[in-house]
Amino acid sequence: MQPQGTAVVTGASRGIGRAIAIDLAQAGFDVVATMRDPDAGKGLVEEVGVTTGSITIQRLDVNDPAGIELPDDIRVLVNNAGIERDYLPVEHTPQEHWRDVFETNVFGLVEVTRRAIPLLRANGGGVICNITSSSILAPMPFYAVYRASKAAVSALDDTLRVELAPFGIRVVEIMPGPVESDMLFASERIAEAAQHEEYRAMAEGVYEGRMQITDQYTPASVAAEMIRTAILDDDGPMRYGCDPMSVGLIEMWRGSSDEGLFTAMTGPG
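and the corresponding structure tokens:
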């Protein structure tokens, strides 16, 4: 598709979402950058600068269906809004953590998407781009809540891809790795799982491995360029990485078995 028309980006106040909104506007889209607190979008217009596109800020909380409004002329929807909680073993994860994360990462995304579909169909098609995570391709301990929510969206993408193809609506799934964001920087800590003696050694090992990739962070602006390319690529696959690590993980996943990935993470039984 050509970079023109209206694109809506959720969770656009910071990190990847903000970078995507800026990049799409600079490419020529009229971007509606949505966020729970519009004050967090200050400076976006200045960051976009002079371009053939534009950017406006709109309040949208994916957990508040009554406040979800999408423009009638939408051509691209980028579902980026998402949250995570403490890194805990499944047996020690409170039920409310599961509910909070799924409410935003899955149910909120579904609500925005189902409202966008008839608009995109009426406009002759377009793109739904869902941001998941390359972490769902590797059996990471203590990330069950976040990974499960993103895996649910990935499964949703498979169904949407088939359902919406007859209407000219493409589904694109972006699976980021270590892309610079507040969420990434906040993960530079030993998992809360370490508070539980039986998981302490594993948590320390995960932290040690986590800190070994800090030199592989990708700037959000670079990831956004790759995401825009995926959105515009009419003949591309559904799933994309947007940084070297995620691209490598997707390639490994496409050529490996589940058991092989499990062994790589845990060692031989």
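(Above: one complete record from the training split.) The beta strands are 6-9, 30-35, 54-59, 74-79, 126-131, 169-174, 239-240.
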